[in-house]
Amino acid sequence: MPTTETNAKKMTIIVTKGTLDWAYPPFILATTAAAMDVEVSMFFTFYGLQLLKKDLDHLQISTLGNPGMEMPLMGMHMKMPNIVSALPGVDAACSTMMKNLIKKKGVASIPDLREAAVDCEIKLIGCQMTMDLFEWSKDDMIDGIEIGGAATYMEMALNSDINLFI
Amino acid sequence: MAELDARGLNCPLPILKAKKALKDVAAGDTLKVLSTDPGSVNDFESFCRTTGNELLESGEEGGIFTYLIKKSG
């Protein structure tokens, strides 16, 4: 595609995860790439489709089976044993802690990053098969997304300089 | 000169806001960015190299990083 920008490179990202923490890498890279004049397309499949839903308040982290997660707490770092993580409400409480930490540290929220992605005209594509599988309709998702399948993605990937699977 | 106060913001917000602010800057004019993010030193160098904008100055004083970016023509 001809372009007058100094950098006409393209990137695609397959977004497969629907948790608060996993929402960051794809949106950070996509918005930053767009700011660096890269044409970006994001393909949301399986749990990644959660990130296209109108309301993002439901996004949570899961501490279960995640030994790498240490939350800073009163000068220490708190780890969560699996037996505690499995209790009802623990993920929700940890997610609230995480969201407060994100705000306190000047880290962008996921709704803000997604809005930035829409503003800089990143192409957002929802996977048709996943929507059928989980019985989601386009009305559940934000406006302006496209719907496609593997062939749609493959054509974009073949024409891109960077293809990531997150 | 246009100025962007990105103090207190973390990656990737200083870059995203700088890109947005540069839209309102005329080619050849400069944008001054203030940041408290130590990672932004390398980030603004990469951003300018990749986008063709010129990083005229990059400095730090008392934990505040200052960048002077000349918008490319």
What does this structure look like?
The complex is a heterodimer of chains A (166) and B (73). Chain A is an alpha/beta fold and 166 residues long. Chain A has a domain of 98 residues: DsrEFH-like (Hypothetical Protein Ychn, Chain: A). Chain A is 36% helix and 18% strand. Chain A is globular and about 45 Å long. The two termini of chain A are 26 Å apart. Chain B has 2 helices and 4 strands; from the N terminus they run βαβαββ. With 73 residues, chain B is of the alpha+beta class. In chain B, helix 1 links the parallel strand 1 and strand 2. Chain B has a single domain, classed as Translation Initiation Factor IF3 (2-Layer Sandwich). At the A-B interface, helix 1 of A face helix 1 and helix 2 of B.
Layout of SSEs?
The complex is a heterodimer of chains A (166) and B (73).
Chain A: E1 10-15, H1 20-35, E2 39-44, E3 71-73, E4 76-78, H2 82-85, H3 90-104, H4 110-119, E5 123-127, H5 128-133, E6 146-148, H6 150-158, E7 162-165
Parallel strand pairs in A: 1-2, 1-7, 2-5, 5-6
Antiparallel strand pairs in A: 3-4
Helix pairs in contact in A: 1-4
Chain B: E1 2-6, H1 13-22, E2 30-35, H2 40-51, E3 54-61, E4 64-70
Parallel strand pairs in B: 1-2
Antiparallel strand pairs in B: 2-4, 3-4
Condensed summary:
The complex is a heterodimer of chains A (166) and B (73). Chain A has 166 residues and is an alpha/beta fold. Chain A contains six helices and seven strands, in the order βαβββαααβαβαβ.
Task: Give the key terms.
A: 166 residues; Hypothetical Protein Ychn, Chain: A; 6 helices; 7 strands; globular; B: 73 residues; alpha+beta; Translation Initiation Factor IF3; four-stranded mixed sheet
